[in-house]
Amino acid sequence: MNSKNMCPPEVLQNSDTDLLDCVESVCEKIPPLWPLRHFVAVNPFVGLGHLDFARGLETIHQATHESATLPASYFAKAWQAHTITDDDLRQACENMGCEDGPMPQQPPAEWLLEKPHLSVADVLDKEQGSRWATLTVEEVSKWCAAYFDEGQSLWQMPWKGQPLFRAWKRGAEMDRTPEVTGLKGFRSHIKSLPDDALLAIEVILQRLGLPPTSWDAYLYRLLMTVKGWAGYVQYLVREKKMRGGSDESLIHLLAIRLAYDSALHSAYGAIPSLPLQKNASPSPAAIWQEALEISHRRAWIARLNLAGTPKSEPVQQRPSFQAVFCIDVRSEIMRRALEAADPQAETIGFAGFFGFPIEVVPVNQDHGTARCPVLLLPSHRIQEHPACSDKTTTLQAENRLKISSQLAGVWKTFKTASITSFPFVESLGLASAAPLLRESLVMTPAGKKQATALDIKSECCSESGGLIVEDRVAMALGALRNMGLTKNFARLVLICGHGSHSANNPFASSLDCGACGGHAGDANARVAATVLNDPAVRSALPSHGIDIPGDTVFVSALHNTCTDEILLFDSESLPATHVEALEVVKATFRTAGDLVRAERSLALGLDLVSRESLLKSLEKRSHNWAEVRPEWGLAGNQAFIAAPRSFTKHLKLDGQAFLHNYDADLDPGFKILELILCAPMVVANWINLQYFASASNNDLFGSGNKLLHNVVGKLGVLEGNGGDLRTGLPWQSVHDGTKLMHTPLRLNVFIKAPPEVMDRILDQHESVANLVNHRWLHLFALEDDKVLHRHPHRGWEPLAHSPKEN
Asked: Of 375, 380, 622, 681, which residue is least crowded by CB atoms under 10 Å?
């Protein structure tokens, strides 16, 4: 950030400490929150990665007054059921460096959490029984919703063109709401503050008289009271920074929240409490969490059954077909089903953008969406256009789509506008009855995707002239090498992206592909197949050591994770010589889909009467606008495994593992291993910790009850009519109404690679090393006869063998 330009140098020089460094440090602790249109899983502890896991939990408690783990009663039940044993607790204490202290005998009835009242609003509410903390959050949320609105509201904030703090200040100077609720002199107090955000922070801290040693904890507490909006602003800041720009809006939001505390201090004289002294030893909650994870890890070691696992051997027979899937845990079930339906088929796990980081621009639009992990920027822009045979027909189709899009926009505005929303149905009379009846009775027909083509020769995001041959060859090489597909190609190779479908679901994109930035992976699959079929690319690959047979054809597909159907793309261009083989593959996909649906039916509460009825039930769920659980997404994820498929092919992993193909023998320089540790593993960790937090304390980290959601500004949801922007997953995404469907456990990462090589890679990447060394995930090395666990202080330690799994 270039925040030093926001405040006169003499102000900073007169500070006892560097205020700017403190403010930026506080802002960096806030995790980003992506908007609903491409909602992606975010590690809610990402800003605390420099701390040990236990210290991170304590920091959250200090700032929010809440626990970041499950209630103590959950661990008490696990203890009573002997899920957690004495050995687990003993090992947990040893792992966390508290072996010299007393081992907990049993979980307490509840966590004894002290509540430091850091903000002025907190102190007043405790002393007066008031609701200033709630009012403050609602006021900040009101102004943020107006400022960041993306076109939902017909009324536009008149100061949107100004920086956030200045725009808010102009409105707040005229806003009587705080004074009506009892905050005397609010408008005059706001007028007395400087227009500059950082200078206002400096002035307010001086008025409060807080020592610099307490600034960090106090300011972090304030941002965490509006952590939803802070997260969205952090997303905007991050997007600007990734593109080489800067944005001080999060500092502005901090100044806004601080200004409300300042007004309360001016009116009532209260001052923030000093932060409590942090406990150096791990909390009971952290110890029991570690013990729970140790107990579940025993099952994973038994599953892997390493002592009896055969060594990886090169495939001798040409596969009947090959299918590349995303590493998403839902793909594990489909891959296992395909291999059961056709034992000669080979499945491959790879990041779901398939090594093609693209931006896709829909028909008749100027801007597109990034279809790649949020850790990356798209390298090329791909334009969609109607799949028509001649120019005239194409223009006609484009015009129809443009008019349809414009009418849809007008229609949506009419329905949601404050003046017309109530009489909407009445004004249309019976014309609106049919669609309402269809939706209410779950009769909505399955929509057909508009046929489009992808112009891979169009404008390039990096302005290097488009997706030229050299770019295509480089991307094809990277994709094939990184997924381990460099030889023994089948006649048909399917690139299977994945996406979901649900109606009336603001969080629909959370069920799509995380590797595609919260979008379906169909575009990436189609671009990958097009490039890998390109004669110019195929002729260039042999000089790089990859020789694809002339009879190998790549076909793109989409795995619908809600119904477990596979949709093939562009198959009409398939050579006549491969049509019969593709029909066989389609039949295999149908058989595999039946197996997957039968396996998933129990968790969804569906009766397996017949295969046809089960498919219809799932289709109804996906189109039912009242369905709050169209599918379970990535609930249940526990492990990330990077190894040859032969290492896990015989295992039933119940959709709990991210599976990435990796063969160290094909990676002499270990560049692929480095990529796996720095990208797919990090993405899996983000997903895992989002589910961890949303299941552990949904009030704090999740988005609450779907039934109470109200979309605000087209970018997020409120639970009810007010409060902060909600973060994380809805409660219905992790709980079925009677029990948790996701057990909050940190990710177990199993990699079949030399431990010393992984150490060397971690030494070169501090942020990734922090995940391992600070215990935000657990790293293991797979060997043919044992599993090694990497302890932050003791290094690689062999784990005791578990009984062989039957």
From this structure: 375
